[in-house]
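Students often ask why inverse folding is considered easier than folding. One informal answer: many sequences map to the same fold, so there is more than one right answer. In these notes we will look at a single instance of the problem. The structure comes first.
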């Protein structure tokens, strides 16, 4: 079983090694070059050579799929970025900590509470943004495209559409992590573990999920770790926070050609923190959550989850990120990247309408979390009315606006109507 799998794997991995075709420039009026691709190339500086080399590499390939994949990645790259965070106290002082300096979860959580009791709330603040279009390399793009196209021929992946392949397998990033060469690494690890007889994506997805839950531990000592762990780091230390492990599941499935998404719960209601979970697209084109025991409990509790968003590589016109001005401040997790509202895919939902007046046309719906009311959804207030859709009807909510200067939420009183 393993020898056949390894032989087949060698065939796929070896196909990415053909030489690069140098192309120093592409004219913006090149026939067939999509407008979105031209715009991204024009927006970057010295790095445009990396983007044009990628297109040139696949420009005359006998199969048009890799070129279309290149257009897709570059055309949707415009506002994608990596981010470095730091943790600051209420006075603005930077705070650092080493998760391994604590013997267990409980000692870290006690230490963190003591710090916040003395210093005030410790918060994540963005330290540095790195735009993909200005830094991504031709090697990363070509490896990503070729391995993605190759993975579409795996028996468990061959029935997915090109649109599904591009949206949920092809992207080289899941969130705002630093770009890495994770696809070949994970393919080399997981492919040999899959029996040659397996053809159903459901079986492969469950195997990957069980493997990761068995060999990697969600460790609350990493709960406040600001930076997203790389795949190589996770394989070295075998633990991380829920976000890190969920990223790993998404990347592992994508390396095997199975469409997968990262789903985010900004804040749990009447509780602490938020949550992440991976999901994969099954044979019936439905996203199935891949949950560990703790995540399953959150869903079982019923009214802890107010909202679920799915990270998107493509432009999502309905996201706050797409419609707001870049300079406009928004609450954490809302308006920072392209998100699709997928709450109704996983839990029963209803709508809530607001009737009243507010100081701003951008209205937020908040839940009580960690002793504060925190924004979990948004709507546009027009003619004294705003409608929030796809919400858990069993959660207690409040309306609020954001004070741009102080970066704080202020409660807004209004008529609250639940529409089931």
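Output (designed amino acids):
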């Amino acid at each position: 079983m393993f020898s056949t799998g390894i032989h087949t794997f060698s065939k796929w991995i070896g196909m990415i090694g053909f030489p690069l075709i140098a192309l120093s420039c592409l004219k913006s009026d090149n026939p067939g070059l999509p407008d979105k691709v031209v715009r991204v190339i024009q927006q970057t500086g010295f790095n445009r050579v990396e983007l044009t080399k990628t297109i040139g590499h696949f420009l005359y390939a006998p199969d048009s799929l890799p070129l279309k994949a290149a257009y897709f990645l570059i055309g949707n790259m415009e506002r994608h970025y990596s981010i470095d965070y730091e943790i600051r106290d209420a006075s603005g002082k930077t705070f650092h900590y080493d998760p391994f300096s604590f013997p267990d979860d409980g000692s870290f959580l006690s230490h963190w509470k003591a710090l916040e009791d003395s210093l005030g709330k410790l918060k994540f603040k963005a330290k540095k943004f790195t735009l993909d279009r200005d830094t991504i390399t031709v090697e990363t793009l070509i490896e990503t495209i070729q391995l993605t196209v190759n993975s579409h021929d795996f028996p468990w992946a061959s029935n997915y559409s090109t649109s599904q392949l591009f949206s949920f397998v092809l992207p080289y990033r899941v969130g705002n992590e630093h770009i890495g060469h994770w696809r070949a690494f994970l393919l080399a690890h997981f492919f040999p573990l899959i029996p040659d007889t397996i053809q159903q994506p459901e079986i492969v997805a469950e195997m990957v999920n069980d493997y990761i839950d068995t060999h990697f531990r969600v460790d609350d000592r990493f709960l406040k770790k600001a930076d997203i762990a790389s795949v190589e780091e996770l394989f070295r230390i075998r633990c991380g926070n829920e976000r890190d492990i969920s990223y790993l599941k998404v990347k592992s499935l994508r390396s095997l050609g199975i469409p997968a998404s990262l789903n985010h719960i900004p804040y749990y209601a009447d509780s602490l923190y938020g949550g992440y979970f991976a999901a994969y697209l099954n044979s019936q084109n439905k996203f199935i959550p891949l949950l560990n025991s703790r995540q399953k409990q959150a869903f079982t509790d019923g009214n802890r989850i107010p909202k679920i968003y799915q990270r998107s590589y493509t432009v999502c016109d309905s996201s706050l990120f797409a419609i707001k001005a870049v300079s406009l401040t928004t609450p954490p997790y809302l308006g920072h990247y392209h998100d699709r509202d997928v709450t109704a895919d996983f839990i029963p939902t209803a709508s809530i309408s607001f009737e009243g007046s507010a100081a701003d046309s951008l209205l937020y719906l908040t839940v009580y979390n960690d002793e504060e009311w925190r924004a979990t959804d948004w709507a546009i207030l027009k003619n004294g009315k705003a409608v929030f859709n796809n919400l858990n009807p069993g959660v207690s909510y409040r309306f609020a606006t954001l004070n741009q200067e102080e970066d704080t939420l202020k409660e807004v009183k209004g008529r609250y109507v639940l529409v089931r």
